[in-house]
Automatic annotation (TrEMBL), chain A:
This is Glucosamine-6-phosphate isomerase. The keyword Hydrolase applies. Keywords: Carbohydrate metabolism, Hydrolase, Isomerase. One of its GO terms (biological process) is carbohydrate metabolic process. GO terms for cellular component: cytosol. Belongs to the glucosamine/galactosamine-6-phosphate isomerase family. It comes from Linnemannia exigua. InterPro entries: Glc/Gal-6P_isomerase, Glucosamine6P_isomerase, Glucosamine6P_isomerase_CS, NagB/RpiA_transferase-like. Residues 8-230 form the Glucosamine/galactosamine-6-phosphate isomerase domain.
UniProtKB/TrEMBL annotation, chain B:
One of its GO terms (biological process) is N-acetylglucosamine catabolic process. It comes from Linnemannia exigua. CDD domains: NagA. Its EC number is 3.5.1.25. Pfam families: Amidohydro_1. One of its GO terms (molecular function) is metal ion binding. This is N-acetylglucosamine-6-phosphate deacetylase. The keyword Glycoprotein does not apply. The keyword Hydrolase applies.
């Protein structure tokens, strides 16, 4: 696993966006061989999307041959509700870029048969040949997507009941009224994310520091589901200085030093490396 | 720690609804979808950048729904070149333009042809909807001209939308007659609604019937300017309001209590504030005093002729400072508006038109206003130092709310008509869309009246 530490939220966002852009450029997607991207919602990726839009507007990145799969969506919330994840993705990314609508996949929280919807989602991922790069955030309780503490680390896309902490955290988007927050969601499983050929988790802010420490310095544990990244052959965590507050000094120093070595060896423009 | 009540366990069964229908109905044979990018947009009292306007079937649509439900990309993407895109302007008071005078009845064919000429010409100045204004006239004149002025939708070919007529008179006070003719004034309306019906030739036998016509866009009278202090007028106001007509106080000698009573009874507009009404007096502020009404009495909208001539710039600023939410800019333009400088014979009047004003030939007397609505906006900002948004809303949102059409006109939001004006940074009209179609402004020929 690589741990990339940057100064602050903006630097993290820029780094991840640039990484995504370079990966796509290197992949050189075509209509028959699109680049399949897994995408999160929440506050962590907003800066990444902003930078990706800037790259697109500068003509450096086209979304024409990119297929996307989002991680999750609330159950029972109308698709055009301002807080639905459809609305989030439209507002922050899709409306600014040239992605084809049929290449966008987000779980339908209003489907008549939710289990079938989850199965279909997994089938669609398989049909395009799996996800090339899955971006994600992390909750303060170490969850990835809506895989709350206690989720199986082998789980697939399914319906989940949201943890109390998550509902409270989301209340700020629903007039601070926790009875208005949906308490069910469809989410990709931990297994679904880890099946991607590469996983990149964005972790910023002091309130995520404990979760980061639990996920990378302690064991693989279903109470901190992001810890499954320890078993991924190509996992990356990008974080800011504040998020390292609970890590051992040794850990931070180690990862900072190997990044320096890499820069000297292959140059900062060649940061796409294979393990 | 309480778990929130109402677990959505029922959603796990088949009783959960299928993906909801989109709210904006998507046309069956799916006309072209146009996306306008690289623009600044006046929307929700803000100027928004890095966004786009999506148009389909002559209306503005919600692109979010279009993307998710129709799963299509736009058929055409237009680069607005960084211009400011605002809703098409709405003109509440204009007597004519390009040599045409709405109050002069001619044979139906000529009148129609002249009307379309003005509809198209007004687009050059950004006006996409308007109320043709008729000065005080005899009943026979009203019956003739109003038949042409029922609401009609605009298009890129036929020009601006007609919202219905603004009949300025004849129930006005002869002491504030302005340029109207004395012999056609009506001094009273003893029979209330019936008198109005008789003079204008309204089709609805009762206010309720007229209101029904109004909902079907069959009412030719949209705004009535009247003097509430005349006999029978005050009592008629509630009935006229019930008939779906906007009542405006103007050409009046009303004192402040009469003016406030008119507003209480349903008047919602003041016709060209300051003009054709008594001067402001500190002990009886009259109609102008409506701008100082206390909070439990709704202050009406007020029209301002913003050419700097009919109202002194300082007076404009005083009105704006006292009631900024109520301002509606109007031109009150007469038939010479839009003509190139020169001498013309308009009706029974010979005039000399200069660039921005018109005189009775051989005199220093102004023959009327020839300001254009986009020039009003520029003047208004200069006179009052108001914000760009306030000045633009004075010709879009405010008149739309006054006339009750703010769901489809004067706003940029899903469901509204795609009437758009593209403005340069110095607020000149560069491009116009009517009902979702771009207009070739250069192809509009309005100079048909001969100079001599």
């Amino acid at each position: 696993m690589r741990l990339v530490i940057r100064q602050d939220y903006d630097a993290v966002s820029y780094h991840v966006a640039k990484y995504v852009k370079e990966r796509i450029k290197e992949f050189a997607p075509t209509a028959n061989n699109p680049f399949v991207l897994g995408l999160p919602t929440g506050s962590s990726p907003v800066g990444v999307y902003r930078n990706l839009v800037k790259f697109h507007q500068a003509g450096e990145l086209s979304f024409k041959h990119i297929v996307t799969f989002n991680m999750d969506e609330y159950v029972g919330l109308p698709r055009d509700h301002p807080e639905s994840y459809h609305s989030f993705m439209w507002k922050h990314l899709f409306k600014h870029v040239d992605i084809l609508p049929e290449n966008v996949h987000i779980l339908d929280g209003n489907a008549k048969d939710l289990d079938l919807e989850c199965h279909r989602f997994e089938e669609k991922i398989e049909a395009v040949g799996g996800i090339e790069l899955f971006l994600g955030g992390i909750g303060p309780d170490g969850h990835i997507a809506f895989n709350e503490p206690g989720s199986s680390l082998n789980s697939r896309t399914r319906v989940k009941t949201l943890a109390y902490e998550t509902i409270v955290a989301n209340a700020r988007f629903f007039d601070n009224d926790i009875t208005k927050v949906p308490n069910l969601a469809l989410t990709v499983g931990v297994g679904t994310v880890m099946d991607a050929r590469e996983v990149c988790v964005i972790i910023t802010g002091a309130h995520k520091a404990l979760a980061l420490a639990k996920c990378i310095e302690e064991g693989v544990n279903h109470m901190w589901t992001v810890s499954a990244i320890q078993l991924h052959p190509r996992g990356m965590v990008v974080c800011d200085e504040d998020a390292t507050l609970e890590l051992h000094v040794k850990t931070v120093n180690y990862f900072k030093s190997i990044e320096k070595v890499h820069e000297q060896l292959i140059g900062s423009d060649n940061m796409v490396f294979h393990e | 720690m309480q778990y929130p009540v109402a677990l959505q366990t029922s959603s796990l069964t088949a009783s959960a609804p299928a993906s909801p229908e989109p709210h904006t109905p998507i046309p069956e044979n799916e006309p072209k979808v146009i996306k306008i990018t690289n623009c600044k947009i006046l929307r929700d009292h803000k100027i928004v950048e890095h966004d786009a306007i999506w148009i389909q079937g002559g209306k503005i649509i919600d692109p979010h729904k279009f993307f998710w439900y129709q799963k299509r990309l736009p058929d055409q993407v237009l680069d607005a070149g960084g211009l400011l895109v605002v809703p098409g302007f709405i003109e509440a008071q204009i007597n004519g333009a390009f040599g045409v005078d709405f109050s002069v009845p001619s044979d139906p064919e000529t009148y129609e042809r002249d009307l379309v000429l003005v509809n198209r010409g007004l687009l050059k100045y950004g006006t996409t909807s308007y109320c043709p204004t008729i000065v005080s006239s005899s009943a026979s004149v009203y019956h003739k001209v109003l038949s042409h002025l029922k609401p009609r939708a605009g298009s890129a070919k036929t020009g601006a939308t007609i919202l219905g007529a603004h009949v300025e008179g004849p129930f006005i006070n002869e002491a504030r007659i302005g340029a109207h003719e004395l012999k056609v004034l009506q001094a009273s309306a003893k029979n209330g609604y019936s008198d109005f019906k008789a003079v204008y030739g309204l089709e609805g036998a009762t206010p309720e019937a007229q209101n029904k016509l109004s909902h079907e866009n069959q009412n030719s009278v949209k705004i009535i300017t009247c003097a509430p202090e005349l006999e029978g007028i005050m009592e008629s106001i509630p009935d006229l309001a019930k008939a779906g007509i906007t009542i405006s106080v103007g050409h009046s000698m009303a004192n402040i209590s009469q003016a406030e009573e008119a507003v209480q009874k349903g008047a919602t507009f003041i016709t060209h504030l300051f003009n054709a009404m008594p001067q402001f007096h500190h002990r009886d502020p009259g109609v102008i005093g409506l701008l100082g009404s206390r909070f439990d009495l709704p202050r009406p909208y007020y029209g301002l002729i913003c050419d700097g001539i009919h109202v002194h710039p300082n007076s404009v600023k005083i009105a704006y400072d006292s009631h900024p939410e109520g301002v509606i800019l109007v031109t009150d333009a007469m038939s010479a508006m839009g003509l190139a400088p020169g001498n013309y014979q308009l009706g029974n009047m010979n005039v000399t038109k200069e660039e921005d004003r018109v005189y009775i030939e051989g005199t220093d007397t102004l023959a009327g206003s020839v300001i254009t609505l986009d020039a009003c906006i520029r003047n208004f900002i200069q006179f009052t130092s108001c914000s760009l948004i306030e000045a633009l809303e004075a010709v879009t949102l405010h008149p739309a709310v006054l006339l009750g059409i703010q769901e489809t006109k004067g706003v940029i939001k899903p469901g509204a008509d795609a009437d758009l004006v593209f403005l340069s940074d110095d607020l000149f009209v560069k491009r116009v869309f009517v009902a979702g179609e771009g207009v070739d402004l250069d192809a509009i020929d309005v100079q048909v009246t001969e100079k001599f």
